[in-house]
Amino acid sequence: MTTTRQNILSNIVSTLQGVTSIKHVEANRFTAVDAEVIPYPACFIYSDREERVEETLSRETWRWTVILEVWMRGSTDAETMLAAIHQAMQNDFTRGGYAYNSYRTGVEFLIIDPAKETHAMLITYTVRYYHAVGVM
User: Fold this and answer.
1) CA–CA separation, 39 and 17 (whole Å)
2) Which strand (E) or helix (H) includes residue 78?
3) Is 0.85 topped by the overall pTM?
4) DSSP H helical ranges for the chain
5) Were both Cys, which of 79, 90, 99, 128 would link to 95 (CB 3.0–4.6 Å)?
6) Contact 129, 98 (CB under 8 A)
7) Band (112; pLDDT cuts 50, 70, 90)
8) Residue 71, Cβ neighbours under 10 Å: how many?
């Protein structure tokens, strides 16, 4: 049985695989990445903080932060990439029906390796979802 969170992550992976400018997508990778081998642009999806925001007799409601770490090289324009990701993610803000809302809450731009023209974005999304009490 998959959890609501796993279903949401799967939806985010497939959504980002549909962005033609992204060449590689992975969720919850916790091993080192060989930056010389992966195709660019690449997107790594990470679970972050989650907090319960409401509980009734029949369901628990959660606010969950998901981070998209997008690596780019060379002339890839970060603003154009951000716009493509934002549009794709907003096309189904219910994450395939597993969330009742998801939205971008921030972005941070980083320079990873100036000599190799590697730069990145950390895009923060908030996902709000619920499930039956005691059932993830």
Assistant:
1) 13
2) helix 78-91
3) yes
4) 4-17, 78-91
5) 99
6) yes
7) confident
8) 21
Q: Which two tokens stand for residue 45?
A: 């999806």
Decide if 120 contacts 69 (C-beta within 8 A): yes
The CA distance from 1 to 56, in Å, is 24
Mean pLDDT for the chain overall: 93
What DSSP character marks residue 96?
Answer: T
**CB within 8 A of 37, min separation 6: which ones?**
none
How many angstroms separate the CA atoms of 78 and 109, rounded? 8
Closest alpha carbon to 125 in 17, 19, 41, 8: 8
Is there a contact between 127 and 108 (Cβ–Cβ < 8 Å)?
Answer: no
Dihedral sign for Cα atoms in the order 36, 116, 69, 79: negative
Residues 6+ apart with CB under 8 A from 21: 41, 76, 80, 81, 84
- What span, in angstroms and rounded, lies between the C-alpha atoms of 127 and 100? 8
Residue pLDDT, tens place only, 24-72? 999 987 778 888 899 999 999 999 999 999 877 789 999 999 999 999 9
Q: Which residue has the tokens 């803000």?
A: 93
The whole-angstrom distance between residue 26's C-alpha and the CA centroid of its chain comes to: 9
